[in-house]
């Protein structure tokens, strides 16, 4: 997924001009404008919620904020440029904007999948290894994990500059990482940036599901302290993962199929399918904040308070003195953490 990298310039069936038709361009522009608005508003709400509410300030939600930042990156620069290109029916902003847009797209997408992987590992340790959780996710360790996640993200993008794969794709009005440069490179990108992280996340959540089932059936009475809040919060992040896989899966699998057998597969991929898979992937960046609001009561309540504070500004600062970073730096025992923070974290 090197940004749009996974499957942007997937095959030699690229058109010389962008798709025509007022309905098509209007639909694409509408979807992207809606995505930008919801992406910015939703993810800003999440970040402010964690900042304001001490119940939400914990190591697990640091990764949630990091994921929000990854989603915001595309909404503030690459997506608006794509909308402009749609209205112009071509890219008129020059090569520098194209290169920067493609780089930030890659930073966002790879950052998202790596953060989702980090969240899954965090949830696995929190639920399946609760007695080691405080030590594994101390404040300093969590900061190190976050830095490592973003370092790996940048490292994953760098090869694209050596391959020379950043190009404008008129089918989706986007500057993307072209995969026609090398079939082997495309396969490596999809495997490393999508399939391997998906495998790691799937393993973590499978182990959590097994533990939850065992607790429900009382196979593991020692783990009976697992609270309903743990399950709800796990389900929230599981939904985030499923939505990411559903939105990005088609684009990645199209790229993988074309890279394995370009001559046979490429002509059979309808252009509408490629365009739809691309905009499904774009749409994913606005979904996470909606999921938090729907499935997590703490976030939902905080959303309401923040929106209410737009009419009563002094309310915005009313909770700021109640927190600090105590939740991150607290030294509860693992058992206490599992009981006391369970319903407050994601």
Automatic annotation (TrEMBL):
Gene3D superfamilies linked: Rhodopsin 7-helix transmembrane proteins
Molecular functions per Gene Ontology: melatonin receptor activity
Chain intervals for the UniProt region annotation (Disordered): 1-21
Family matches, as InterPro entries: GPCR_Rhodpsn, GPCR_Rhodpsn_7TM, Mel_rcpt_1C, Melatonin_rcpt
Transmembrane portions of the chain: 28-51, 63-87, 99-121, 142-163, 183-213, 234-260, 272-295
Pfam families for the chain: 7tm_1
SUPFAM superfamilies: Family A G protein-coupled receptor-like (SSF81321)
Keyword Transmembrane: yes
Domain G-protein coupled receptors family 1 profile: 42-292
GO cellular component: plasma membrane
Compartments reported by the entry: Cell membrane
Keywords: Cell membrane, Disulfide bond, G-protein coupled receptor, Membrane, Receptor, Transducer, Transmembrane, Transmembrane helix
Topology term for the membrane: Multi-pass membrane protein
PANTHER family according to UniProt: B2 BRADYKININ RECEPTOR/ANGIOTENSIN II RECEPTOR (PTHR24228), G-PROTEIN COUPLED RECEPTORS FAMILY 1 PROFILE DOMAIN-CONTAINING PROTEIN (PTHR24228:SF72)
Similarity section: Belongs to the G-protein coupled receptor 1 family.
Protein name: Melatonin receptor 1C
Protein species of origin: Etmopterus spinax (velvet belly lantern shark)
């Amino acid at each position: 997924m090197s940004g749009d990298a996974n499957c942007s310039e997937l095959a030699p069936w690229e058109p010389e001009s962008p798709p025509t038709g007022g309905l098509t361009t209007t639909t694409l522009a509408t979807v992207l404008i809606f995505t930008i608005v919801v992406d910015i508003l939703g993810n800003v709400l999440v970040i402010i919620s964690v900042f304001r509410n001490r119940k939400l300030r914990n190591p697990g939600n640091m990764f949630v904020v990091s994921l929000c930042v990854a989603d915001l990156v595309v909404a503030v620069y690459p997506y608006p440029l794509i909308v402009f290109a749609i209205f112009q029916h071509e890219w008129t902003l020059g090569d520098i904007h194209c290169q920067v847009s493609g780089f930030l797209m890659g930073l966002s997408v790879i950052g998202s999948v790596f953060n989702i992987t980090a969240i899954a590992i965090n949830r696995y340790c929190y639920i399946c290894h609760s007695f080691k959780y405080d030590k594994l996710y101390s404040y300093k360790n969590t900061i190190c994990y976050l830095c490592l996640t973003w370092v790996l993200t940048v490292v994953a993008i760098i090869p694209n500059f050596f391959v020379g794969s950043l190009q404008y794709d008129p089918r989706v009005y986007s500057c993307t990482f072209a995969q026609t440069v090398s079939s082997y490179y495309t396969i490596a990108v999809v495997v490393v940036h999508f399939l391997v992280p998906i495998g790691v996340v799937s393993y973590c959540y499978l182990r959590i599901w097994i533990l939850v089932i065992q607790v429900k059936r009382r196979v593991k009475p020692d783990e009976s302290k697992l609270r309903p809040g743990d399950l709800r919060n796990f389900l929230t992040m599981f939904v985030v993962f499923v939505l990411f896989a559903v939105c990005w899966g088609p684009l990645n699998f199209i790229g993988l199929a074309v890279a394995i057998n370009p001559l046979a597969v490429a002509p059979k991929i309808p252009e509408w399918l490629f365009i739809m898979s691309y905009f499904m992937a774009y749409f994913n960046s606005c979904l996470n904040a909606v999921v938090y609001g729907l499935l997590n009561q703490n976030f939902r309540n905080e959303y309401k308070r923040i929106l209410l504070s737009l009419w009563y500004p002094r309310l915005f600062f009313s909770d700021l003195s109640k927190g600090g970073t105590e939740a991150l730096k607290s030294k509860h025992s693992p058992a206490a953490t599992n009981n006391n923070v369970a319903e407050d974290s994601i």
